[in-house]
Design goal:
By secondary structure, the chain is an alpha+beta fold. Helix content is about 35%, strand content about 10%. Helix 1 crosses helix 2. The structure holds zinc ion (ZN).
């Protein structure tokens, strides 16, 4: 299928995302969101549908809020023309609010499956 030239300016379509199809309950990692989903499979690297984890309903709000902010910081970090130094200071500091919240969420997801956290290390 050809990619539409305006695909990155269109609303996200979850049906278009490739999800994890691993047969086993693989370990997870928490990181930059793909199609609004920050929970990935450690084996194939693809997003794991939240209902397959399953993400506890009590975590949905805080996980989605963390995901939006974390992913925005990663976008700024990758922008080499203005925001990258500020975003790097947040992402590289393991004690920053975004990393501490990510570690807290990782811990809570680990009740479902082993879960790791994508920490952006200083170079
Ligand atoms: Zn997988």
């Amino acid at each position: 299928m050809d990619e539409h030239p305006y695909m990155f300016l269109h609303p996200c379509n979850p049906e278009a995302a490739a999800f994890c199809n691993c047969l086993d309950l693989t370990p997870l990692w928490l990181g930059r969101e793909v199609w609004h989903n920050p929970v990935h499979c450690l084996v194939c690297g693809k997003p794991v549908p939240p209902e397959d984890v399953p993400v506890p309903e009590s975590l949905i709000g805080s996980l989605s809020q963390w995901s939006r902010i974390y992913s925005a910081l990663v976008e700024m970090y990758l922008d080499i023309d203005g925001y990258e130094l500020w975003a790097a200071s947040e992402l590289h500091d393991i004690h920053s609010r975004i990393n501490q919240e990510g570690l807290r969420l990782r811990e809570m997801l680990s009740d479902q499956r082993p879960c790791f956290f994508w920490y952006v290390r200083p170079r």
